[in-house]
Amino acid sequence: MPEEKHRSGLVAILGRPNAGKSTLLNHLVGGKLAIVTAKPQTTRSRILGILTLEGAQLLLLDTPGMHAGTRAFNAALNDQVDEAAADCDVALLLVDPRNGWGDEHAAMLAGLRERGTPVVVAATKADLHAGRDAAWPPAGAQSADVWLRVSGQTGVGVPELLEALRARLPEGPRLYPEDQLSDRPLRFLVAEQVREAAFEELSQELPYSLASEVIEFDESDPALTRIRANLVVEHDSQKKIVVGAGGAMVKRIGIRARSEIEQLLGVRVYLALWVKVEPKWQKRPKRLAALGYS
Ligand SMILES: Nc1nc2c(ncn2[C@@H]2O[C@H](COP(=O)(O)OP(=O)(O)OP(=O)(O)O)[C@@H](O)[C@H]2O)c(=O)[nH]1
Ligand SMILES: [Mg+2]
Fold first, then answer.
1. Given Cys at both, which of 19, 29, 137, 195 links 212, Cβ 3.0 to 4.6 Å?
2. Nearest CA to ligand 1 atom 21
3. How does pLDDT run across 228-258, given as a tens digit for each residue?
């Protein structure tokens, strides 16, 4: 029997906001690359997770949720989704069955079919709906190559999913060392942890226009990494909320973020966190790019 050739390629993880894309990515690579919150539109830029298997390497691209919005910021997110769909070797379209199959899914699937891209459709959060749902797969999804049910939380369906993706990848060499989990620099992953901590602590009060950036990353002391980071908001009123009474809120965000970053880096961390007002950063293409949104 001839030996099977090594396969590799880009798998774009697509779906509506909150479908469970980032949770599944983290599960697949076995580490927390992408931040996850209960709020839609958590992921704001493409994040590449690298999964090395026997005989194959999957480059898993997490994307922001596909959605209809016309502001410059939303458009920048949608461009990233379209680009990922256009560039990938295999598309993984995730659907939360509780929200059903919609026009965005149909349009995305049609576009992928037109390009001849293999499509795997999976219902997410399978742990929440154990029984087979009569409405799944939805009629509109029939032209996908395969449909599955997975959970990024329990891992149900993941072996079948990996096999479905692997089988559709083109032949190709291993592209990254097997111990590398992402192509994103640590600075970016750290900034994302700060943003997640702010999301969690601020809950309902969260200004949507909140971003984060790492401005200093000092690893010269092997026992303690020193990090300075900014939380960027658009208005003074938002700064007040994020700083909190007597600085209590920013302190809580810092404590939460530091513990996540220590887990990510595996070393003790000193984190200095500042809140900075930058009017209209979401409308300035250069700032969007500097904050990692393009
Ligand atoms: N029970 C259950 N909850 C899940 C699962 N996957 C994701 N969730 C939850 O669904 C919410 C959204 O998950 P994310 O992974 O952030 O979703 P996303 O598609 O990346 O969302 P955006 O980045 O906002 O587009 C979070 O509260 C997750 O904890 C799953 O398999 N089971
Ligand atoms: Mg996400």
1. 195
2. 18
3. 999 999 999 999 999 999 999 999 999 999 9
Give residue 51's Cα distance to chain centre: 15
Homologous superfamily of domain range 7-168: P-loop containing nucleotide triphosphate hydrolases (3.40.50.300)
* 97 CB within 6 A, ligand 1: no
Ligand 2 mean position to 47 CA, how many Å?
9
Ligand 2 centroid to residue 207 C-alpha, Å: 18
pTM reported for the whole predicted model: 0.82
CB atoms within 10 A of CB 132: 8
1 lines ligand 1 (CB under 6 A): no
Cα(253) to centroid(ligand 1), Å: 21
Antiparallel, parallel or unpaired: β 47-53 and 7-15 = unpaired
Q: How far is 61 from 10, CA to CA, in rounded Å?
A: 7
Which is higher by pLDDT, 31 or 18? Answer: 18
Q: How many CA atoms lie within 13 A of 135 on its CB side?
A: 8
For the chain, domain boundaries: 7-168, 186-290
- Which is nearest to 57 in space by CA: 117, 7, 91? 7
